[in-house]
Design a protein that fits this description.
The structure holds two protein chains of two kinds. Chain A is mainly α. Helix content of chain A is 79%, strand content 2%. Chain A is built from ten helices and two strands. Chain A is globular and about 60 Å long. The chains are: A mainly alpha, B alpha/beta. The structure holds adenosine-5'-triphosphate (ATP) and magnesium ion. The site of adenosine-5'-triphosphate has 12 residues of chain B, from helix 1.
Chain lengths: 247, 286
């Protein structure tokens, strides 16, 4: 029942995505490829981090970053438009489906977009340097990352009172994470106090999981659990906000 | 008699301001009920409460016997709604918008296809089925919204100003649609500030002002209550005074008592607009 209801909502968003998949793939690859060129080739040539070349080090980080941005925007921006611009979210609220189905359905498009973007980027990275292992742990980490940030997107969209609020949320939360979340440098290199701050960011844990899985290093199970906890918090947040919304 | 909508002491406050104030209402099964009121009277707020989007501050409301707060899941299956503003997904086609709604109401694939074609035909949009919402006219969008509201065969259709901003032809077309749905057995609850719309469609009218129902009855009852004949006296400053009389004879007698110098005098049948203006103390805009 929940699956069918959530799929109904996902279906509509998939139809929209289908209509512009070509454009989506191109635009979604632009920023990760730019990061790759600037940091992987430009800045990082000849540097090695934690026993890997900087290129090998940075690619999983950029995958985590891509998953974060695409899932967050994929779910958040869609919902924001539905809610405040098209007003079609009201129609979903008036339909005889549970809040759980509604949240899952709205988050799922973020997961789908996040997976498409990061897998497309993985392919590009593999073309350049086939030194990564894409195993079950990598996929689980990627999926959990997408799920977590998709729910963060839904949460942001439910809280937003305008389109600007979404942009503000992006610059206050996502942008700092982009540069601090263990994407471009190793968390092991920073001072202890800063480390604490970095560990409070979900992206740090996602990067660590994806990197360890891709480079066959020992897997940080604690970080995977941490991402799971972030997901749970975002999910509960969504449920509470949705309940409060109808006042 | 079976009751479709009932409210008791329904109240909604926004920051101390009462948008809906102690509203008592009853709409019988099979009726076409018109909810008439000036801008800001509380019509949309009432509808948002009935459709479970907003919770009342106090008081209760039921749709087909289900409480809109405590039995909201049952309530959601009972009504179809056409909201005041457009609420279509503009990046989907006409058919996809209907399909989404049908899926949300648990119709299976065969049923969905049949129902969508049937309704697109009903609102005369079959040839636009695969157009994006952004590419069709405002009147067509309204008709898509009406079709969407009907997909799951609701017993109650709620329309919040269904014809606002539409040309005369489209408006009549939508009136015909509403009449047809009502004769098919659907209870209709519509808000409007076009008086002639209420007169054309509704067998019962409730006039709401500042969150209160100030008058309730059939259009004829309301007109009779005011007086079926109106005399307009236009004075020099172009101010018009209105007097109401139970029938033409009494009105004519009154006119004869006026000094022969009296300027412009018009005697006519009272309409719902007279009732409305008398009760709400202001002209309806638009
Ligand atoms: N979310 C809200 N927050 C604060 N005030 C609100 C809110 N929604 C409605 N109101 C106020 O409640 C009152 C009733 O509004 P409502 O939209 O129900 O009127 P209406 O009868 O539908 O008017 P219209 O004919 O213009 O559509 C108005 O004064 C409006 O400003
Ligand atoms: Mg309104």
């Amino acid at each position: 029942m929940i699956v069918m209801e959530a799929y109904a909502i996902l279906w509509a968003d998939l139809m929209v995505l289908k209509r512009r998949i070509g454009r989506y793939l191109t635009t979604t690859l632009i920023s990760p490829v730019l990061y790759l060129v600037a940091f992987g080739w430009g800045l990082g040539r000849g540097i090695s981090v934690d026993g890997a070349s900087y290129f090998e080090f940075v690619v999983p980080g950029i995958i985590a970053l891509t998953a974060m941005n695409s899932s967050f925007n994929g779910a958040g921006t869609r919902l924001n438009v539905d809610r405040l611009y098209f007003k079609s979210f009201d129609e979903c609220l008036m339909a005889p489906i549970s809040h759980l189905s509604l949240l899952l359905g709205k988050a799922m498009i973020g997961v789908v977009r996040g997976l498409i973007s990061s897998i497309a980027f993985v392919m590009v990275a593999l073309l350049i340097s086939p030194a990564f292992s894409i195993g079950p742990l990598f996929l689980v980490s990627l999926l959990l990352t997408c799920l977590t940030f998709a729910f963060l997107g839904v949460l942001a969209a439910l809280l937003a009172r305008s389109h600007e609020d979404m942009a503000t949320f992006g610059s206050l939360i996502l942008l700092p994470m982009t540069f601090l979340g263990g994407t471009f440098f190793s968390v092991s290199q920073v001072p202890a106090a800063l480390k604490l701050v970095l560990y409070a960011l979900p992206l740090t844990h996602s990067s660590m999981c994806l990197r360890a899985a891709a480079l066959d290093q020992s897997f940080p199970w604690g970080s995977l659990l941490a991402v799971g906890c972030f997901w749970l918090v975002f999910f509960i947040g969504c449920t509470l906000v949705l309940k409060r919304a109808s006042v | 008699m079976h009751i479709m909508i009932k409210t008791e002491h329904l109240t909604k406050e926004y920051g101390g301001q009462k948008a809906v104030d102690d509203l008592d209402l009853q709409v019988d099964l099979g009726a076409t009920f018109g909810f008439l009121g000036p801008n800001g009277a509380g019509k949309t707020t009432t509808i948002r409460i009935l459709t479970t989007l907003t919770r009342p501050t106090s008081g209760r409301a039921w749709i087909n016997g289900f409480d809109v707060v405590s039995e909201s899941s049952e309530v959601k299956g009972e009504f179809g709604i056409v909201q005041q503003h457009l609420s279509l997904n503009r990046e989907l086609t006409v058919r996809e918008n209907l399909d989404l709604h049908a899926r949300l109401h648990h119709l299976d694939r065969a049923e969905r296809r049949e129902r969508i074609d049937e309704l697109l035909d009903y609102v005369d949009l079959l040839e636009y089925a695969d157009h994006l919402i952004d590419r069709i006219s405002g009147g067509m969008k309204r008709r898509v919204m009406i079709a969407r509201a009907l997909i799951h065969r609701p017993r109650l259709l709620i329309l919040d100003e269904p014809t606002v901003g539409l040309d005369a032809q489209t408006r009549r077309r939508i009136w015909d649609l509403i009449r047809r749905m009502n004769s098919d057995g659907t209870t209709v609850f519509l808000t409007t500030h076009y008086i002639e719309e209420a007169e054309a469609l509704c067998d019962r009218v409730g006039i709401i002002h500042q969150g209160h129902i100030i008058s309730l009855g059939s259009p004829l009852e309301l007109r009779r209550h005011l007086g079926l004949t109106t005399v307009e006296l236009r004075s020099e400053g172009n101010n018009t005074e209105y007097r109401y009389f139970p029938d033409r004879t009494t009105a004519a007698k009154y006119v004869q008592t006026l000094p022969s110098s009296a300027e412009n005098i018009v005697m006519r049948e009272s309409n719902l607009e007279d009732v409305f203006v008398e009760l709400t103390g202001r002209r309806v805009c638009e």
